[in-house]
Design a protein that fits this description.
It comes from Streptomyces dengpaensis. By secondary structure, the chain is mainly α. The chain is built from 2 helices and no strands. Helix 1 crosses helix 2.
Length: 59
């Protein structure tokens, strides 16, 4: 039962993404840019944290 719900959720998500891309490509591009900026900021924060740890955690 849970597998079917997961498949349905993925199908609905894919249909929604295709709908947004087809109806408003500029907005879809904005969403992709926002997503990549979020991933980039998260990676930078993890890198800063690891550098802080490697430098002695603020000694």
């Amino acid at each position: 039962m849970a597998v079917n719900a997961k498949k349905i959720a993925i199908y609905v998500l894919v249909v929604f993404v295709l709908y947004v891309i087809i109806t408003d490509p500029a907005k879809a591009a904005d969403y992709v840019q926002i997503g990549f900026e979020g991933i980039s900021n998260a990676a930078r924060a993890i890198g800063d944290f690891m550098t802080w740890i490697a430098d002695g955690a603020g000694d």
